[in-house]
Every structure is written in structure tokens, then in C-alpha cells.
Amino acid sequence: MSEHRKLKITEMNRLTVEEFKETDKLPLIVVLDEVRSLHNIGAVFRTADAFLVNKIYLCGITATPPNAEMHKTALGAENSVDWKYFGKTEDAVEELHNEGYTVLSIEQCEGSTMLGEINLEKDKKYAIIMGNEVKGVKQEVVNISDGCIEIPQYGTKHSLNVSVTAGIVLWEFANKMISFRSNC
Fold first, then answer.
1. CA distances in angstroms from 102 to 27, 56, 95, listed in the order given
2. CB 52 within 8 A of CB 79
3. Which of 55, 73, 82, 144 has the most CB atoms around its CB within 10 Å?
4. Which residues in the chain land under pLDDT 70?
5. Distance between CA 131 and CA 165 in Å, rounded?
């Protein structure tokens, strides 16, 4: 059996907050539509930091930093990842469309594209909308999205936790977008 020594934090060569702010981010924005759990919001910040997400849009009842409970899961990522608040998610989607983003709701819809089947285009900017823990992405928001992406599920439950969903979807998007950069 081989030995695998865990790396110390000082060995991981992570960016400082200042370096993160200056780093070229992915052309990707996460929109949180009425997410109520401070722990979920914090976890999304932390995942967004890990995958160089450009910004998070916090909408409706979604809390904003600074917040001690959010910090417990964000662990400081609420300071590195830029964010903006909107009273209505529809206003966030309108702004994204005006800025040339393709806006995709992460939701189970008629005609959804399965996550593994998405084809991202190299020169496009994307925004992904994550919904409320109970109700998902509001139908009014789905209606003005450019499409829906669904994570295939094979068990008895019909949904995943919003922070888990964000992790899976951001991993898929980041993987594809980072490969665009390395193929230049």
C-alpha cells in the first residue's frame, strides 16, 4: 500500500483574496433565486471561489454578506467572489441578457438538457440559475431563461440540495470552460 501524505495548506499555493480579485475568471455567473439557507448560500460562495466564477447574483430573500452564519460555510469566499443583489430574479436575468449572457435555469423542465449533454460555446458567457430549496427556480424565471439543464438522478428522490447541485453544475461548466483556455 502506498503512502499518501495530506498536503498542508501552505503547500497548496492558493491565491490570496487580492490575487483572486485580479485573476481572469470564467465567463460564468451564478444566480441564486430565493435561496433561504445561509449555509447553502455560503457553500455556493465557496464553490464559486474554487471554480473561478465571475460573480454571484443574490436575488429576493437570498441573504447577502456580511453574515456570520453564511461565513461558517463560505469560509471567507464571500470576500473573494464578487456579488450583486437584486430584489427580483427577473431583473437579474434581464441585466444578464442585456450583457450578452446565455441564461440557463437548473431545473427539471419539459425539454431540459441533461447536464452531461450540454455543449458550451467557447466565446459565450453563461449564467446558471439555482432555485429555492423547496420550490426550485420560479416558473416566471424559467420562462425568461434561454433553456434548462437537469442533473440526471436515479434514486427515489426528485431533487438534490441546492449547494450540491451548484457543486455538480459548476464542476461541469468549469471543466469545459477551462479546457477552452488550454486549447488556445
1. 10, 15, 11
2. no
3. 73
4. 184
5. 10
